[in-house]
Design brief:
22% of the residues lie in helices and 25% in strands. It is elongated and about 75 Å long. Helix 8 links the parallel strand 16 and strand 17. The strands form 3 sheets. It has a 15-stranded parallel β-sheet, covered by helices on one side. A 3-stranded parallel β-sheet has the order 9-11-13. Strands 5-7 form a two-stranded parallel ribbon. It is α/β, with parallel strands linked by helices. It has 11 helices and 20 strands. The two termini are 55 Å apart.
Amino acid sequence: MAITEQHSRRRRGKHPHGEPNPSSIDRLSDLPDSVLTHILSFLPTNLSVRTSILGQRWRFLWAYVPNLEFLHENQEIINRVMLLRRVQTVNIFRLHFYLDYSAYQLETWLTFAVIRGVQKLDLSLEYEDTISGLPGCLFTCETLVDLSLYYCGLIPASGAVCLPRLKILRLISVQYEADESLPHLLSGCPGLEDLEIRFESDMVCCNVSSPTVKRLVLDFIYEGCGGRSDRLEIDNTPALEYLEINNCSSEHIKCGVLNSLIKAEIGFYNDEKKQDYYLYSRTVLEFFDRLRNVECLKLDLSCGPDIMDSVLSAWTTMFCNLTKLELHADCRFLSKFLANADNLETLIFTEHWEEIEGWTEPREQVPTCLLSNLRIIKIVNIQGRKDELEAIRYFLRNSKVLERMKISYSRRLFSSNKEINMLKKISTFERGSTACQVAFVPYCWWST
């Protein structure tokens, strides 16, 4: 039904001389209905409905809003709103429901959105006895562009999947019928570009394959909370530009070629169940090889298992495009990256809190990046140890184009003689760059 553009007459207060009183003019109601419904579309549906009390003209405007957003409403309200709607399209359908419901009721709600051409669907079902399956219509909606599923149902391992327009998919703490469920779902999304998955259930093998995906986020939950995967396979992702993996504890990691990758953020977690540390060390470094084309890399090995010296010493991967590195690891990795990233411009380094071995000055020639490209260095949360000061001395002496070094130090050193002596000592270190400025700040984990 078309929205009428006729405006009802409104009484307005006037000045004594007959002029309208500016403070009493209802400028909002002067706007066309199409503009008002667009404004209402940014509100949750319950607030949109409440505007019906503003006046006769507002009584049914909410019924023409193309978006439906139900945040913890009861079933009766949801059903009544759907019954009274006067527009035959649904652009956005958001349902966050925490009460008990039937499979029939859920299918009715989702079918309502699907047959009206929903483009963005956000479903969160937090009731702990959630039904085991999701309606089939959800996986064959040809208009869906953006789909987010939170804490709901099972992703099936079989059945029809046809989501030809889907570009964004978020699977947050959902359940999977089998390890084949995820590859089966992705196979029906030929245009997918953005995939985010938070695992809460264990899998033997997590396989991600999508030739069109550009952004991939995999978040594994800590051991004891589910979310383990013995094998992680990222295969056939030639378009991938951004990769984020958090709390990965997989013993076997297999990754295809990532020639399009620009930025990666990787974090490993030690589940203390590794059977073969030599094999695991090789697997991790082979995975790092696939990151060789990145321009920005954030690598957190602070909670991961130790990589064996015998394997790391043979690692020679060159990171020719790397310009920014944020590294939380032991100094062995720092030395490797300095030697193999000639174009590095920005370095943020946090030493492993259980340092395997402290900094030792490279015996080979000074890394190319220090001589020609490295301009910004941030060293995070130093404790004032001798090896830390030697690393700082080395950087200041050999970084020929360094513009700024920021050093954050442990708060336990704050306002102590050790802090004063440490800062004075660093201030006297030789600097290879006359333009270099050194800043000292107490460590704050939220500002690093």
